[in-house]
Design goal:
Layout lengths: L1 H10 L14 H34 L5 E3 H8 L3 H10 L4 E4 L2 E5 H10 L9
Antiparallel strand pairs: 1-3, 2-3
Helix pairs in contact: 1-2
Length: 122
């Protein structure tokens, strides 16, 4: 797409403006701005498309996991409370070696639902 845009731009006639004529009329300035924007806007659009594709691809590559400490801070609970929540099956965890990790999606869902994990008194 960028190559097509550049080839189109190279085939367009080049308008040379005399610097002495630039101050004489506002029409020349607006025409010049339109011409410059006509050249630059396809290139800017292509750059924005490529950057947005890369950002979206990078965000979807790997699932995010939180450690016990990070999950406890996000949920505003203590580590023993987080252990109880995990034991009760309210929040799924994965064990990687000796580490316990929580999926970011599960934590984010709990935060969005505003689930209260504290103050379990019967």
């Amino acid at each position: 797409m960028l190559r097509k845009t550049l080839t189109k731009l190279s085939k367009m006639p080049l308008i040379l403006l005399n610097p002495k004529d630039m101050g004489k009329s506002d029409i020349n300035i607006t025409q010049t701005q339109q011409i410059v924007m006509g050249f630059i806007s396809p290139i800017i659009d292509e750059i924005v498309d490529r950057v947005s594709e890369r950002v979206l691809a990078a965000s979807k590559k790997e699932p995010k996991f939180y450690t016990r400490k990070e999950a406890a801070e996000i949920l505003h609970v203590t580590l023993p409370t987080l252990a109880r929540i995990t034991k009760d099956g309210l929040l799924a965890s994965k064990r990687v070696g000796s580490r316990i990790l929580y999926e970011a999606e599960a934590i984010d869902e709990a935060v969005k639902k505003q689930v209260v994990f504290k103050y379990r008194r019967a």
